[in-house]
Structure formats: structure tokens, C-alpha cells
UniProtKB/TrEMBL annotation:
Single GO MF descriptor: acyltransferase activity, transferring groups other than amino-acyl groups
CDD domains: E_set_Esterase_N
Pfam annotation, one family: Esterase
UniProtKB keywords: Signal
Highest taxon in the source lineage: Bacteria
Signal peptide residue numbers: 1-19
InterPro entries the UniProt entry points to: AB_hydrolase_fold, Esterase-like, Ig-like_fold, Ig_E-set, Mycobacterial_A85_antigen
SUPFAM superfamilies: alpha/beta-Hydrolases, E set domains
Protein name as catalogued: Enterochelin esterase
Organism annotation: Flavobacterium nitrogenifigens
Length: 371
């Protein structure tokens, strides 16, 4: 479990990273973030990666944006103007991609009314998108789109109905006889089953890759990993068995009964980011007869001695950002290859423990699945 404690600390200490170099002058080409509330002008972002905020709080004494490392108190300190608005710009350019943030107003924590909310760090947080140079692969395009639907499945082990989201590819409702492989895809600590489609844009990545003919279409199932019950600092007490029961004994049979799946080990994969990677690691090692493709996205590594039977294992994919521990990922994959395992590594350049790392990782992973 020690290797996973490091992962969780990374999540909690570094949702957002600043670029190491600051630009001498700010280009005034700011535009509203693409994940703003409808009709809201702020927050804004520019082509260099700076973010600008405007908050109406005429009676407040201080307003700090918890995005990045600029300013005091680990955030961007806004200044009050005579009109009662607080305004400010990050001191440096942000990492490209999606980031969580919130406001601290006179010591209280609030969301930005201008931004959409996303479930992360065990609460609904404001979100912002810094335009990425390679954002085309997760952009909304004029291509056939799949469907993301909510399902409720019975869980005797937890004595309730549990929720999952299921992505079906564009062809699913056209060819009523075709069956599909399935990827079970897990979120990270403090997130939930909405993360991969909302923050990760996994459905758009799939739609675009399918339209380009780069992948074999498959179903994706995303469910809550029972991670939020783990308190900060309490990962050592985490037990995989309750979620393993939900996934293997309850969710998978439900999916196979209610969707047109190819319901065998060879056509079933599991992947997860961060703590979802930890869950993936534990369950795939415990249940090698259930999954044939494993993927850890900033979520630890596999060791050759953990793979008891290589004959039915088709792929191990391990990735992280270049600002995480890329040498660990590359070394682990080399060791697996030397042991005769089909292993692939991927390093996302200039990103840390954040969603652009995982979006890029999924883009690299998807074409390798079910080939």
C-alpha cells in the first residue's frame, strides 16, 4: 500500500501546477472559459494560460481564488474596486487543461457563481479550462456521437441501488445484433462516477477516435468506487473487498444482462486514474479471470511477480504526467516487458496529477484495447 499513499498525497497537494516560467507581459486576448455558466463572462483565460477572475462581493474584506500557487495563502488574491467587484489575474500561466478551484471569501469557502461545478475533492468545485495546444482530440465535433446514460443497479452487498454511467458507441443503437467489449473505468479520490464524462470528456474522446477509425468501438462503464469514505490520511485502512464485490459480483452481471456485451474475460478491461488505479491494480490482481486488459493512469505500477498467469493477460498500460514520477512508470514497464508481459507506458508532457494527463492517457490507451 505504500506506493499508493504517495499517489493520494499527490492528489491532495497538487490539483493544479503552474508553468515554471512566467511570461514577461500578459496578452490581452482573454475569453470566457468554456466551462462557464451560461452567459457568464468570468472567469476568463488567455492564449498564454493566464486566468482572470471577477467576483461581486461588495461587503467582503478579502477574496482569494484557490487556483495555482500565485499570491498569498496559496492562491490568487483579488483586489476590490470601487464598484464592489473583486478582480485579479493569476501571477503565472497555468497548466493546460481542466482544473478545480474555489473561492475563499472572508475565511469561508464558496464556489464561483460564474463557473460550472464538478464533483472533486469530495465536494462540488468550480471548474476552469485552460486551452490546450492538443485539445482537438477531446473537442466536441460534428461526428456521430455515442450515448452516456445513467443506470441504477441493485447491490445486495450494500443493501441499496447504486449508480453507474454507461457510454455506448454511436453504432450501438443501429446494429441491434452486434455485441461489444466493455471497459470498467474508475475515477480518482474525492470524485465520483460523473468525473470521466464531465471532467475527462471520455465520451467525446471515444466519439472522435471512432470517427477517425482509430479504435474498435467498446462500451465504457463508470461507477462510484466507494473512495470518499476514505478520510485524508486514512488510506492505510482502505479495504478493496467491498468495492470488488460491487463491481465483480453485482455490476458486471447487471451490465452483461442489460447491455449487448461480449461477456468473457478476453473482452473485458479495467482502468482507473489515481486511486481508481489503485482499485484497478488490486481487483485485477485478485481476479485475473475477470479482466484481460489492465490500465493504471497515475495510479501506481504492476510488478512481474504479481502476474500469476500471463497466458490470458493481453495488455498492461501504465501512464503518468511528466511532472509526476515518469521514471518509475518507464522502469516498471521495462521490467514487465522483460518478464514477457505485453506492457505499454505513456508519459504526458508538461502535466502533473491532473485531467489533461488522464485525457491524453485515455487517448493512447483506447486504440490498444480489444485489438
Amino acid at each position: 500500500m505504500k506506493q499508493y499513499r504517495i499517489v493520494i498525497l499527490l492528489i491532495l497537494s497538487s490539483f493544479v501546477g503552474f508553468a515554471q516560467t512566467k511570461t514577461a507581459s500578459i496578452i490581452e486576448d482573454f475569453k470566457p472559459s468554456v466551462v462557464n455558466q451560461p452567459g457568464q463572462e468570468y472567469p476568463k483565460v488567455n492564449s498564454q494560460g493566464y486566468a482572470r477572475f471577477q467576483i461581486s462581493a461588495p461587503e467582503a474584506k478579502s477574496v482569494v481564488v484557490s487556483l495555482g500557487l500565485g499570491g498569498a495563502k496559496g492562491g490568487t488574491v483579488l483586489a476590490k474596486d470601487q464598484d464592489g467587484y473583486w478582480r485579479g489575474t493569476t501571477e503565472g500561466a497555468m497548466d493546460e487543461g481542466f482544473h478545480y478551484y474555489h473561492l475563499t471569501i472572508d475565511g469561508g469557502i464558496f464556489n464561483d457563481p460564474g463557473a460550472l461545478n464538478f464533483y472533486g475533492s469530495t465536494r462540488w468545485e468550480s471548474g476552469i479550462e485552460i486551452p490546450a495546444h492538443d485539445q482537438d482530440f477531446y473537442a466536441l465535433k460534428d461526428v456521430p456521437h455515442g450515448n452516456v446514460q445513467q443506470i441504477l443497479f441493485p447491490s445486495k452487498s450494500t443493501n441499496t441501488s447504486r449508480r453507474a454511467f454507461v457510454y455506448t458507441p454511436p453504432s450501438y443503437h443501429k446494429d441491434k445484433d452486434k455485441k461489444y467489449p466493455v471497459l470498467y473505468l474508475q475515477h480518482g479520490w474525492g470524485e465520483d462516477e460523473t468525473a470521466w464524462s464531465n471532467q475527462g470528456r471520455v465520451n467525446l474522446i471515444m466519439d472522435n477516435l471512432i470517427a477517425e477509425g482509430k479504435i474498435k468501438p467498446f462500451i465504457i462503464v463508470m461507477t462510484y468506487g466507494m473512495t470518499n469514505e476514505v478520510k485524508y490520511g486514512g488510506l492505510a485502512s482502505f479495504k478493496i473487498e467491498p468495492f470488488q464485490t460491487v463491481l465483480v459480483e453485482e455490476l458486471i452481471p447487471y451490465i452483461d444482462s442489460n447491455f449487448r456485451t461480449i461477456s468473457n474475460q478476453a473482452n473485458r478491461a479495467m482502468a482507473g486514474l489515481s486511486m481508481g488505479g489503485m482499485e484497478t491494480h488490486s481487483i485485477t490482481v485478485n481476479k485475473p479471470d475477470v479482466f484481460s486488459h489492465y490500465a493504471l493512469l497515475s495510479g501506481g505500477i504492476y510488478k512481474p511477480e504479481e502476474i500469476e498467469d500471463k497466458s490470458k493477460l493481453k495488455l498492461i498500460f501504465i501512464s503518468c504526467g511528466s511532472r509526476e514520477r515518469p521514471e518509475s512508470v518507464q522502469s516498471a514497464v521495462k521490467t514487465l516487458k522483460d518478464a514477457g508481459v505485453n506492457a505499454v507506458s505513456y508519459i504526458s508532457e508538461n502535466t502533473a496529477h491532473e485531467f489533461l494527463t488522464w485525457r491524453r492517457s485515455f487517448k493512447e490507451l483506447a486504440p490498444l484495447l480489444f485489438r
